[in-house]
Amino acid sequence: MYRNHAIYAVLLALSLVATGAAAQNINPDISVIGDVRTWVTGDPSDPKDGELQLDLESAELAIQGYLNPFARADLYVGYHDGEFELEELYATILRGLPLGTVLRAGKYRVDFGKLNLLHPHAYSFLDTPLVHREFLGEEGLSDVGAGLSWQVPIGASSLTISGNLLKGDFVEAHGHDHENGADAIVRLARPEGLVGAPRVALEEPTTEAETALGWSERLSLFVPTGEWAGVEIGINALQGTLDKLTDRHVELLGIDFKYRWAPDKYRSLTVQGELIRSERDVLHHHHEAEARARQDAHGVERIESAGYFAFVDWRFRQRWNVGAIVERTDLAEEVETAVERAGVFAGFQVMEESTMVRLLLRRTDGDEFTEPVNEGIVQLAFSLGPHRAHWF
Amino acid sequence: MTRLHTLVLAAPLVAGFAAAEPVTVVTALPDFAVIAKAVGGDHVVVDSIVKGNRDVHAIELLPSLMVKVRRADVYVMVGLDLDLWSRQLIDGSRNPRLVVVDPSSRIEVLEVPTFKVDAAHGDLHVHGNPHYWLDPANARPIGEAILDGLVRVAPQHAATFRANLDAYGTRINNASADWLRRLQPFAGAEVVSFHNSWPYFARRFGIRVVDFLEPKPGVPPTPTHVAALQARLTSGRVKAILMESYFDDRVPAMLSRTTGVPLVKVPVLAGAAPGVDDQFALFETITRQLAAALGGK
């Protein structure tokens, strides 16, 4: 639904901006981010195994600005695989609410973990971590919702508590099917041996799922460890309904940490990681029609799974950084099937941080029946316009 | 800028009529903290976001900085888009009673572009050069802006604040006369600087900045540009390489070594070097080192 109307929303927004040219000072900031990649993969199941490939991985349009002195609005429209998608559109009341609370409403990336708040183009390691893809969605977790956050200063430290009421579309992270609408139940799996590749439907969608409102909560503590360094630890939880008729639910629990030291503009060290545990009700294929006909949970199995990622990113010159990432995740809907991935990466700013060239070399290990996959990826990411700096 | 001015105008509406003593002032730059303390005296406690030898253009947006701004009554930004991070700190502070002061609205802004600015010009500031605190004569208008902010929060001390500002202005004017006298023999001397931080200083003290190590503002020196600079420095007209202490000095040191043009690496912020704790020590340090280099000592 969002995909179909995103491009019209962008055109409308741009036309509004254009007609306000006389009042240029109150125009919002407009930025465009592009992500072009070339890669080679050593995957026997890929028809282009061993061939050099090239594609526009994604593009993103950001329109951001103040609604008034105390509130902002942000719009992000993404372009992936030939389609536009409304990634985020939300308003944030930053100041003026009781107890220093911050209110956000719209469609936005949910603060489940620290990394999910960033768009993937900002990742030094290029791709959404496997555990996020498996449990939060291909591009991370975003949904329509309303959220409140409350911060308690403790000396120079701060404890932040936040909660989000979510529409529930996030549960479709495992079932995007553009042809049949976002609410269709789709059985998904990856092509054999192609770990990390786009999922494909194994069978046609059957009936509409009835999702319901979900919730997420986060408790985080930031402690400064120097003038320009600090560590943040967070605990995250999420509850959602996959389908009311078959009474299937999903629950996620996560912990995350981030340490960053940046003594000057030439050096910085970031160490960050996250662990997510999932409990997800899965409807077995052969029971599905029967279960839905009887409107009970017959044939539903609760699958417990978990995954993690951790990376280190070291900027050793103003324009150079190197790092490494390790990942492991169980598959959310399959028992005793896990994927492991490890990679090293390097980045170079062409003149300034608005133009980045990144290299990633990685190896992915699936189950005992699949061969390990080695990949090499080069990314050119560029940012046109005043895209704002990210917070810690 | 209009949005920021709106911010300044709107803040008093929720600021309350009088804050508890003392008034807490947080400034973007340590130099502004020095002036705020001089104006506020015992009625204020001051702190700054930038501390030590830090590039003011690139600040880590740590939550602890937002906590600092959350507790403030007055926040003094730089403006002219130098500290874009100040907007994010204000947003992240969750502080509705904050009075935001932008002293750049009180000074004569130099190098305002008269052409369409985009990223092809590097990090060129759309509203003009923002390094205005490097002219000691601007201490007075900066102090006036801070005074207005303090009076909004603590109007009962307006007379004291005004007297303090007058005293500070007199002191820095007297010191400035001495710095001018010592640099006057070098009026018109050509220097190359690392970043375009010096137009206000150069105008005050008669120095001519003829080129920069950065090929464009914010862009690190490139081999081609350094080679061109090397040729210019060997011409004999350029008397010094003037650089801000928070930049990497390997390239300017190499240029100095190979051309014989002295390198003057100086702090541009109070607190950026031992003993440089206020504006007086800052300008004294710059004056002493620059005069020594230009005088061939």
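qc> The helical segments of chain A are 2-19, 130-135, 288-294.
qc> done
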